[in-house]
């Protein structure tokens, strides 16, 4: 079935690519970003690749078919990888899959030179590799942790392109001689798919950069600047959600309050910069021991953690592991210790009561000599009876806004 002239489509495609390249260069002058260079290189490689393919009748096969197709596909790989990286943190296997797809594509094209593979077989294999990359990228957009309408558009676009390329692969199995100028519908549709993906990618790149910047601003707003743990406001927001879920499901939830012992003396003796280093070191240890739990720098030298699911013995074991790791740690040859208070849910109506109990247990650990763990037991002075409790409640209310 005759659909259109592929050469006319490629020429139009190159014009669009050049326009997109100009827009990217202008954006790069205003807001230079290392990711722009990857996307820009992808565009340049595609332009060179498609230009060599366009002049197939003029250039030698070694340049037009092998170098042209290789550059074109390398640019497509850079496009897809950059967009996926802006959408989510790509897993290592995805990066390896993109590299493997590029190596397989180039290797297949090179096999035509010694006559190991005929052109039709080369185009068939390369089309399947191209379709596989499109399908994999579609999956990465679709399974991003926070799906947005833009990522759904990208997922659908890449998915449609994958389907068209697999259709072209099926068509290639039934032809006797491959020609770029073949006006058959699958051939034309695959060029139009490349045209569509290139256009959607160019538009989406700028929008994804804005989405990424907004996400980064939200992350920074939730992070403590020194430790990169959650700050108190974010901790209370996430902790309230955890508390309500645990309460409705009857799941155990434990709170830990962790305080660096004799921190004022450390600052007075070694200086505030050393104190900051010790605070950062404790945050590193907490990330190591409590990686699967919600942790925060609550304020000053005080930290908090919420531990979901384990019973009392497991919660205490985590606290003991944390304390043991701290005892093994040192900063510039200076050792330090912590006091830890643990409390579990006992009919509290909100997270505040749970945190107050853990805080009371932590101050009990300090009164009993520091460098120890105390589990809150009903009957001990709680935050409602302890002068420190009033301070904590005011701080909690401020944190919740």
Automatic annotation (TrEMBL):
Keyword DNA damage found: no
CDD domains in the record: GGDEF (cd01949)
Signal peptide limits: none
Alphabetical keyword list: Membrane, Transmembrane, Transmembrane helix
Disordered: region residues: 377-401
Record field: transmembrane: 6-25, 62-84, 96-116, 122-142, 149-167, 187-208
Biased composition (Basic and acidic residues): 388-401
Superkingdom as given in the UniProt entry: Bacteria
UniProt keyword Translocase present: no
The protein's name: Diguanylate cyclase (GGDEF) domain-containing protein
Source organism of this protein record: Thermanaerovibrio velox DSM 12556
């Amino acid at each position: 079935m005759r659909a259109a002239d592929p050469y006319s489509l490629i020429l139009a495609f190159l014009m669009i690519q050049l326009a997109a390249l100009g827009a990217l260069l202008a954006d790069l002058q205003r807001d230079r970003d290392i990711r722009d260079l990857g996307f820009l290189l992808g565009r340049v490689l595609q332009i060179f690749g498609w230009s060599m393919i366009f002049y197939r009748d003029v250039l030698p096969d070694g340049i037009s078919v092998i170098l042209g197709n290789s550059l074109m596909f390398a640019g497509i790989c850079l496009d897809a990888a950059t967009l996926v990286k802006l959408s989510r943190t790509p897993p290592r296997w995805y990066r390896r899959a993109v590299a493997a797809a590029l190596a397989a594509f180039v290797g297949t094209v090179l096999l035509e030179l010694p006559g190991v593979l005929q052109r039709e077989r080369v185009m068939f294999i390369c089309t399947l590799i191209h379709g596989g990359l499109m399908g994999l990228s579609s999956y990465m957009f679709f399974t991003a942790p926070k799906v947005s309408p833009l990522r759904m558009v990208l997922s659908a676009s890449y998915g449609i392109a994958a389907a068209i390329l697999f259709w072209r692969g099926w068509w290639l199995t039934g032809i006797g001689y491959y020609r770029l100028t073949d006006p058959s519908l699958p051939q034309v549709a695959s060029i139009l798919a490349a045209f569509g993906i290139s256009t959607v990618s160019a538009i989406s790149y700028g929008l994804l950069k804005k989405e990424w910047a907004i996400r980064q601003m939200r992350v920074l707003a939730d992070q403590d600047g020194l430790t990169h743990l959650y700050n108190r406001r974010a901790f209370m927001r996430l902790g309230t959600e955890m508390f309500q879920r645990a309460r409705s499901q009857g799941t155990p939830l434990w709170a830990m309050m962790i305080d660096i012992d004799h921190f004022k003396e450390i600052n007075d003796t070694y200086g505030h910069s050393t104190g900051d280093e010790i605070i950062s070191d404790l945050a590193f240890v907490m990330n190591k021991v409590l990686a699967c739990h919600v942790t925060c720098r609550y304020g000053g030298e005080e930290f908090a953690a919420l531990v979901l699911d384990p019973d009392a013995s497991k919660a205490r074991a985590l606290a003991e592991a944390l304390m043991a790791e701290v005892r093994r740690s040192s900063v510039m040859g200076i050792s330090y210790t912590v006091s830890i208070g643990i409390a579990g849910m006992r009919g509290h109506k909100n997270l505040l009561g749970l945190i107050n109990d853990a805080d009371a247990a932590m101050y009990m650990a300090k009164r009993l000599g520091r460098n120890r763990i105390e589990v809150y037991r009903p009957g001990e002075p709680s935050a409602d009876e302890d002068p420190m409790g009033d301070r904590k409640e005011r701080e909690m209310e401020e944190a919740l806004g």
